[in-house]
Specification:
10 strands; about 35% helix; TIM Barrel; alpha/beta; 10 helices
């Protein structure tokens, strides 16, 4: 399976720098982040394609207010998404810039209109966010485009994952990557459950990886040792700039340290065969 020019069967882990809201509303920051991710060794950057209006209602009733011990507690969903979204009019320039400097770029769509926009930009893959894993209409529509499907499993049970994989396959798309993910921000280490990575690969016959919300770089290294072929980690130029995702994002030096550790882990794992001495 290839994502753009990157071959997931090459023996190297596909490392994604998730920009998410870390542009802080600045196109220049987004462009500079793509440059920095490339310099830090990322194989791809990923953005998100939604608006507050395509995700939720501008409402402050209890069901629309964030709870549960997150970094965003007591904020309305609408206000968070309004702050965090990547303007759609930026997308073409972001894609063009990434391709110019030689790094892959793709996005998480949250509705069919987002898929249509990303198709126009010739996205190399689609990422389905954890909270959209039960949106079978979105998954089917994205999968029908014939591009690799990367699906996070943060809130999913076994049947949810089984259904999402089945939806992709019903439209003839077998290029599926399932990412173990814990939908907590930040995620405690004890909730990472990394042994799910080889288990999902065996159960569903797909490529697997890890979308990481823990602090630091230990979890991605352990994930690679357990067979992860894809690592996704939030990336920020400077945490002191703040923003909704800043606290659990790696800066450029930390991200570069993670990339080096992952590449060293690839070397340590070897090919799994005995050799005559």
């Amino acid at each position: 399976m290839k994502i753009g020019k990157f071959d997931l069967d090459s023996g190297h882990v596909f490392i994604i720098a998730e920009l998410s809201a870390n542009h802080n509303g600045s196109l220049q920051t987004a462009l500079d982040s793509i440059d920095a991710a490339k310099e830090a060794g990322a194989d791809s950057v990923k953005i998100q394609t939604y608006t507050a209006d395509t995700l939720t209602l501008n409402c402050d009733r209890e069901d629309f207010v964030i709870k549960g011990g997150t970094l965003w507690d007591d904020r309305t969903l609408y206000s968070l998404y309004q702050e965090a979204y990547t303007p759609w009019e930026w997308h073409a320039e972001l894609f063009e810039h990434a391709r110019k400097i030689g790094i892959e770029i793709f996005s998480s769509p949250f509705d069919k209109t987002a898929v249509d926009l990303l198709e126009q930009l010739d996205t190399p893959a689609y990422k389905i966010a954890s909270y959209e894993i039960t949106d079978h209409a979105l998954i089917k529509y994205a999968a029908s485009k014939g591009r690799p499907m990367i699906i996070s499993t943060g809130i999913a049970g076994y049947s949810d994952i089984e259904d999402a994989v089945s939806v992709c396959r019903t439209v003839g798309n077998n290029d599926i990557v399932l990412l173990q993910c814990t939908s907590a921000y930040p995620a405690p280490l004890e909730d990472a459950n990394l042994r799910t990575i080889p288990d999902m690969a065996e159960r569903f016959g797909v490529c697997t990886g890890f979308s990481d919300h823990t602090m630091g770089i230990t979890a991605p290294i352990a994930a690679v040792a357990l067979g992860a072929k894809v690592i996704e980690k939030h990336f920020i130029l400077d945490r002191s700039a703040g923003g909704p995702d800043a606290d659990f994002s790696l800066n450029r030096q930390e991200f570069a340290d993670m990339v080096k550790a992952v590449r060293d882990t690839e070397k340590l794992l070897g090919c799994g065969l005995f050799h005559d001495r």
